[in-house]
């Protein structure tokens, strides 16, 4: 199999002959094909995200501050003044799923900055030269963004539980929560990557990110029921994937009436659409 | 050149074949008709000043830029029609220092093992071998952010090697490095080539490196290849040309002289209409600043 090298190997401290030193580097790995490519790339990108979080947990702690304040200050206060009609559910319970969705979205919506950094540093270029179709790469990134969102959700659930929110501990429902958080953050991170593919610079992406997060948050049912909104805001909420995410989380976690089928369908469709649009614009970042 | 384990069969397939490669960014022609053949097992250098079209040529070969079918082939696979097959054969190190500083050396390499479908049971051993091949075994568990510029380059070599590529493509691998780091990077490249029989396609500004380290060279200028051959052939060609021109005893030319002869200008004075000069310089500076 391996032929003699053209020249004698240079003197080296390593006593092993090159045939052994490089034994594994001579055989290309067997290619995965078909449907197995996407899950493999998703796993690879998620592994990187987890490794980064293991090395530096600062972000986890600082990210926990905002949702804690929302629940502690906003939630406790509005529970007391009964200003928002949430039926028989205490306002803090009503708010908790909304804050999970919101804080996950805040993470995902700036994910495009990472893509721009990766493009500037050459990491993206290198990934684009691996046997990874663009859609698979974007899918991998989208779910890697979900890793942080899921950890964030766990933190918020813990805070909410500590504040006495009556949450479900049914493992099936919690699995549903996991899926909903992943799907939502896949959509918002793809939205962010799509914007990154259009604006191409970090500063512009930051600006747009700042401009859209609050409208997405206030234009959803995260803080108040849709029935309490004026008509035009109800229309915004209907077109806002965050509302479907909150509806599903609320149904799963605290058992309010929800439209789980519709919610999941909308979230899956939004994620697929997001992946398609981000993948189609990825080429602009490669140039 | 070296008999390689990869060249099976009687008919040798070129490692890289470009036939009439053109690429324009808007109205500026970055590559303007390049015909190129890289033989399996050789170290082939692509030389030229900023904006000569070297990087664009490489980006076409790596499938990063869309090219029409039949223009670029890698070991017989068409870069337009069989993109994934081409990518599986490539190890690519871009100009920028592209290792991720927030991961360890080992994790950086493991990512590329994963995206090239290295099975889990083989992953750790393969990653260790790739790191060992570039002399980073002892730094494997350190964060890449703590590496020196030369170490980052070697780490990137390991990232490219872990998938056992048949063609290693290096875009300005020694840019921004001090002479000692340069030599260590080149020594590794030479060693790996000897040990694995890989084909190496490298771009560089440095005539000296090209002269010492490459088997064959193509001199590029304004999107075209102006001269092609071994360093000795190129220099001998110029001497012969000078004799014909009537010089009795022309002094032995350097590669720089050869380049100046073919391009009409030196490396320091690229033409006024070179594309991408600014972005090239910006990228180079960014690389240099990361090298520290």
Automatic annotation (TrEMBL), chain A:
A GO CC annotation given for this chain: ATP-binding cassette (ABC) transporter complex
Transmembrane parts of this sequence: 94-117, 149-169, 175-200, 212-233, 264-283
PANTHER family linked to this entry: NODULATION PROTEIN J
Database matches in InterPro entries: ABC2_TM, ABC2_TM_bact-type, ABC_2_transport, Nod_factor_ABC_transporter
UniProt-listed Pfam families: ABC2_membrane
Subcellular location, record wording: Cell membrane; Membrane
Coiled-coil segments: none
UniProt keywords, alphabetically: Antibiotic resistance, Cell membrane, Membrane, Transmembrane, Transmembrane helix, Transport
Topology of this chain in the membrane: Multi-pass membrane protein
One record GO biological process: response to antibiotic
An example molecular function term from Gene Ontology annotations: ABC-type transporter activity
Domain ABC transmembrane type-2 positions: 58-285
Name listed for the protein in its UniProt record: Transport permease protein
Source superkingdom: Bacteria
Keyword Secreted tagged: no
Keyword Ubl conjugation: no
Family statement: Belongs to the ABC-2 integral membrane protein family.
First-listed, main subcellular location of the protein, grouped into a coarse class: membrane
TrEMBL record, chain B:
InterPro entries linked: AAA+_ATPase, ABC_transporter-like_ATP-bd, ABC_transporter_ATP-binding, P-loop_NTPase
Cellular component aspect of the GO annotation: plasma membrane
Gene Ontology MF annotations: ATP binding; ATP hydrolysis activity
Record's compositionally biased regions (Basic residues): 283-292
Keywords, in A-Z order: Antibiotic resistance, ATP-binding, Nucleotide-binding, Transport
Compartments (UniProt record): Cell membrane
Any single Pfam family the record assigns to this protein: ABC_tran
Family: Belongs to the ABC transporter superfamily.
Protein name: ATP-binding cassette domain-containing protein
């Amino acid at each position: 199999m391996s032929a003699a090298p053209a020249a004698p190997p240079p003197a080296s401290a390593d006593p092993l002959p090159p045939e052994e030193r490089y034994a594994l580097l001579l055989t290309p790995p067997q290619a995965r094909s078909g449907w197995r490519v996407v899950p493999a790339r998703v796993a690879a990108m998620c592994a990187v995200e987890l490794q980064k979080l293991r090395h530096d947990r600062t972000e986890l702690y600082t990210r926990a501050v905002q949702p804690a304040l929302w629940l502690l200050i906003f939630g406790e206060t509005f529970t007391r003044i009964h200003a928002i009609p949430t039926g028989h559910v205490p306002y803090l319970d009503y708010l908790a799923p909304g804050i999970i969705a919101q804080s996950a979205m805040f993470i995902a919506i700036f994910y495009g900055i990472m893509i721009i950094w990766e493009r500037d540093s050459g990491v993206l270029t290198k990934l684009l030269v691996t046997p990874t179709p663009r859609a698979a790469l974007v899918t991998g990134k989208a779910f890697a963004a979900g890793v942080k969102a899921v950890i964030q959700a766990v933190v918020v659930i813990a805070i909410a539980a500590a504040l006495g929110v009556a949450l479900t501990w049914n493992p099936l429902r919690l699995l549903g929560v996991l899926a909903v958080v992943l799907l939502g953050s896949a959509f918002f991170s793809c939205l962010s990557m799509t914007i990154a593919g259009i604006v191409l610079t970090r500063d512009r992406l930051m600006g747009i990110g700042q401009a859209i997060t609050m409208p997405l948050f206030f234009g959803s049912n995260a803080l108040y029921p849709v029935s309490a909104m004026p008509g035009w805001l109800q229309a915004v909420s209907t077109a806002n994937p965050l509302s479907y995410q909150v509806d599903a989380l609320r149904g799963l976690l605290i058992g309010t009436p929800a439209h789980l089928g519709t919610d999941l369908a909308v979230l899956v469709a939004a994620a697929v659409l997001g992946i398609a649009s981000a993948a189609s614009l990825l080429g602009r970042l490669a140039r | 050149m070296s008999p390689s384990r990869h060249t099976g069969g009687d008919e040798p397939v070129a490692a890289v074949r470009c036939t009439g490669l053109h690429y324009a960014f808007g109205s500026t022609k970055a590559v303007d008709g390049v015909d190129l053949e890289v033989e399996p097992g050789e170290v082939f250098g692509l030389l030229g000043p900023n904006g000569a079209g070297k990087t664009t040529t490489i980006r076409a070969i790596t499938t990063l830029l869309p090219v029409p079918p039949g223009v670029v082939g890698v070991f017989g696979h068409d870069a337009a029609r069989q993109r994934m097959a081409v990518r599986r054969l490539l190890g690519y190190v871009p100009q920028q220092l592209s290792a991720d500083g927030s991961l360890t050396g080992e994790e950086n390499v493991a990512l590329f093992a994963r995206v090239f479908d290295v099975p889990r049971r083989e992953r750790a051993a393969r990653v260790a071998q790739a790191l060992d091949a570039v002399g980073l075994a002892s730094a494997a568990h350190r964060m890449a952010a703590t590496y020196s510029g030369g170490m980052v380059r070697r780490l990137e070599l390991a990232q490219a090697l872990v998938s056992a590529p048949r063609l290693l493509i290096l875009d300005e691998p020694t840019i921004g490095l001090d002479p000692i780091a340069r030599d260590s990077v080149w020594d590794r490249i030479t060693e790996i080539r000897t040990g694995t029989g890989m084909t190496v396609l490298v771009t560089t500004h440095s005539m000296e490196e090209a002269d010492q380290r490459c088997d064959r060279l193509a001199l590029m200028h304004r999107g075209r290849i102006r001269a092609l051959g071994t360093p000795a052939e190129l220099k001998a060609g110029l001497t012969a040309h000078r004799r014909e021109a009537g010089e009795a005893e022309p002094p032995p030319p350097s590669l720089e002289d050869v380049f100046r002869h073919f391009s009409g200008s030196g490396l320091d004075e690229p033409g006024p209409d070179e594309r991408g000069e600014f972005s090239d310089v910006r990228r180079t500076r960014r690389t240099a600043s990361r090298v520290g």
